Amino acid sequence: MRNGQRGNTRGVLVGPDAYRLIAEFILSRIDHELSSLVGDKVVGAVRHVDDYYIGLKTEHDAESVLSTLRELLATYELNLNDQKTKIYSSLEPINDLWAQRLRRSVRLNRYGISHDEVEVAIAEAVDTCKNLSSESPIKILLRSFDESKIYSSSHWEFVEHNLQRIAQKHPHAVDYICLLVAKRHALDLQVDLDGWKNVAESVVRRALALNHDHEVLWMLWLMVVLSIEVNGDMVDALLSSRNSHIGAFVVQAFVDGHLKRRPRLGLGSALSSVDSNWLTNLVARSQGYSKANFSGLFASEFSHLAERNIKLIDFEFHTNKIKNESRAISRTRYGYDDDSDDGSDEFFRMPGMIERPDLNDIFGN
After folding, report:
1. Distance between CA atoms of 2 and 185, rounded to whole angstroms?
2. Rg from Cα positions in the chain
3. Confidence class for position 189, pLDDT limits 50, 70, 90
4. Which residues contact 163 (CB under 8 A, 6 or more apart)?
5. Predicted confidence band at 15 (pLDDT cuts at 50, 70, 90)?
6. pLDDT of residue 206
7. C-alpha span between 251 and 288 (Å, rounded)
8. Residue 363: is it exposed, middle or buried by C-beta count within 10 angstroms (0-12/13-18/19+)?
9. Helices 17-38 and 59-75 sit at what angle, rounded to 10 degrees?
10. What are phi and psi of 48, to 5 degrees?
11. How far out from the chain centre does Cα 168 lie?
């Protein structure tokens, strides 16, 4: 794990599926220890990924169990997010009323949407987002757009302009926005390519400066899917991030013919199988970008995969699949579940070790 996150011993890397499994192993152990220590006090409990919901008989019991949970997490160098950790009376609603109200106000009938309804839905979501200092209202709006198939409606031009503004102000909604735009493109409907080029370049520049690789990857993916040129200066900036996922994306984009200039990766004569650049190295070798041999502990395993020309990143896979899917935003993969980020409050909540949607549909088998 340390090799995968530049020597950092705290937390679990966000994104790759392997780390999701590692995080689950850790939290399952914590569940077992917590149950052994205070299970007799718990009326009922559920853990959804890294969110805890624990019911107790009294407030005193709640404080005691909360203290025990903190101590257990500390043994694994994990911490509760105190700003999101609360003790509620059993009479209080668990789900926020604002989320229920917003869902009603942004729900659009796909068979008869008026311009005013779309405009009000956007205004309601943006205003709620501002008042709550949360991006969950924006995601509820984008799911409503998906359910109403807004990407194939006559209101798309108006919606698209708003999506371009939202993408620049609400980075945690970038993935949903990219999926909606990709769905319209997959249906062979017109997309504002110049507008998305400007948005993508703006978002990528800012995200690279802040090391927000999530937004970088999604915007790079959208540019490739829409066949928007990624110029040489942007490629150089992307590779300066030292993020292996970004490097792997750039390699695959070049191999697939989406980049005009060969990216300057400087992989060298030996491709490490154990350092933080292992993913870029594997993609480069398996796709014929580099002919260098692997080195390190897993050299033979990596060579075995590369010799079979495995394709870990498939830009066409999602585009072909999404064309026939009923929705742009999947509801069955983690990160897009209906209740995963709708603003529901919790009794106890851990900070997100796996808090952002990853690129499951983009990284192929």
Report:
1. 40
2. 22
3. very high
4. 177, 180, 181
5. low
6. 94
7. 10
8. buried
9. 130
10. -105, 100
11. 16
